[in-house]
Design a protein that fits this description.
alpha/beta, Rossmann fold, four-stranded antiparallel beta sheet, 8 helices, 25% strand, binds adenosine-5'-triphosphate, ATP-binding, P-loop_NTPase, nucleotide-binding, ABC_transporter-like_ATP-bd, AAA+_ATPase
Length: 278
């Protein structure tokens, strides 16, 4: 469903004098992520995790190689097609990105309202980036978007909080609202960028249980970028290990021999994170 075929991504880093230097963020990445799979991506800071996510929703284009989603080469899409494709992908972030001045229900309904206002064809998906909401009208609480938002809030067990504002919620509750918002357009894929990094362990468990339910009941493919190895171990079917932009392994979390490989990476990562060196 998501395929990376020999993907390279190089950025140009400009020095103070304006001279450009290439920075190879991803080298020769080939991997595929199945339908309804929960796929983890781990790696140290700067290893290319976010770049990999941004390639999946076409916010970045590969410098070479091909990224395909449902068989479609994203680089071959025209801008309008790319926007539609992006609407089939939901995204959640470490900092939730909810709008403080809107109710929980209005936050969740926002992608639907934006979709309607722009008169976009097709019912599926949205890019969470668009929910930052510049110029978007507050949903009035009437009509289909609100009903759909309430359904999604029930799905993440947040129905009772629909009339509250984000500031009245815990971090875990905010993330569950963000999940409801990301799913309101029934995306095929949910991208999660450090979804539990600012949560305590109880709220982490609640969010991960919600993601497991999303996969089970909606058949959504979920890609989870996280530096929290327990989260990857607890929720993912497989995980890619990125080291300095290179894919050094794709580990089947359930397989004993693969688990050993992941544990050995985890040990190195833990030593790095704790001691600042490998
Ligand atoms: N738009 C950009 N322009 C220039 N360099 C970039 C750009 N985006 C990312 N990079 C560089 O590419 C490399 C990979 O960045 P990326 O954000 O993908 O890493 P990451 O693993 O997600 O890091 P972190 O865990 O700190 O978020 C880094 O060296 C980063 O500085």
């Amino acid at each position: 469903m998501i395929e990376f075929d020999q993907v390279n991504k190089t950025f140009t880093q400009r020095s103070a004098t304006g001279r450009g230097k290439p920075l190879h963020a991803l080298h020769d990445i080939s991997l595929s992520i199945d339908e309804a799979e929960i796929f983890g991506v781990v790696g140290e800071s700067g290893s290319g995790k976010s770049t990999l996510l941004r390639l999946i929703n076409a916010l970045e284009a590969p410098s070479s190689g091909v990224v395909r989603v449902n068989g479609v080469d994203l680089a071959a899409l025209r801008p309008a097609e790319k926007r539609l494709q992006r609407r089939r992908i939901g995204m959640i972030f470490q900092q939730f990105n909810l709008l403080a001045n809107k109710t929980v229900a209005a936050n969740v309904a926002l992608p639907l309202s934006l979709h309607r206002r722009r008169g976009m064809p097709g019912a599926k998906g949205h890019g969470a980036q668009e929910t930052t909401g510049r110029g978007a009208a507050e949903t009035s609480g009437r009509g289909a978007p609100r009903e759909r938002a309430l359904e999604m809030l029930d799905f993440v067990n947040m129905g009772a909080h629909a009339a509250k504002h984000p500031a009245q919620l815990s971090g875990g509750e905010k993330q569950r609202v963000a999940i409801a918002r990301a799913l309101v357009n029934e995306p095929d894929i949910l991208l999660c960028d450090e979804p539990t990094s600012s949560l305590d362990s109880q709220h982490t468990d609640e969010v991960m249980a919600t993601l497991l339910r999303v996969r089970r009941e909606m058949d959504t493919s979920i890609v989870v970028v996280s530096h929290e190895l327990e989260v990857i171990r607890g929720a993912c079917d497989r995980a890619a290990i990125l080291e300095s932009g290179r894919l050094t392994g794709v580990v089947d979390i359930a397989a004993p021999e693969a688990r050993e490989r992941f544990n050995s990476y985890s040990e190195r990562a833990r030593r790095y994170l704790e001691g600042g060196q490998e």
